[in-house]
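Service request form, structural biology core

Requester: graduate student, group of Dr. S.
Request type: structure prediction, single chain
Budget code: on file
Notes: please return the result as structure tokens.

Sequence provided:
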Amino acid sequence: MKGDKLAVIVKKMTRSPEDPAEKRSDCPIANVLDLLGDKWTLLVIRDMLFFGKRLYKEFADSSERIPTNILADRLRRMEQAQLLKKEAYQKKPVRYSYHLTAKGWDVLPVLKAIMEWAFKHCSGTSAPSPEKLAEIKKNIRKAKPKRSNR
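Core staff response, request fulfilled:
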């Protein structure tokens, strides 16, 4: 009996939110939450979009301090969900850089909407300074793939 419970837990932890057979609902909100709704995924995408982060260490050094075991798991899940792709930039030891796919880039308007909502409803939330906003826009322009590559 314990083995059966463990197998169910492992299956749930490793399931792909992209697999239609694994979806718990036809609701678009539930499906997006299955893909993006944990505590860390949107922050990794934010770091990639707004701050130009690409390397594991850069994500680990974010101010929110994502634990490294969770970071490794989220990057793996995001790759499985085709939100990002990884490319080896070093052979020994193998190290990867991470890049958003077109699907990952499509999260940008969602992040903007969340920020607008937070500015309105979450006290203590502040908009980036004009300098920081200019840096964010520059990072987005620099990292955004050309339409033909998407």
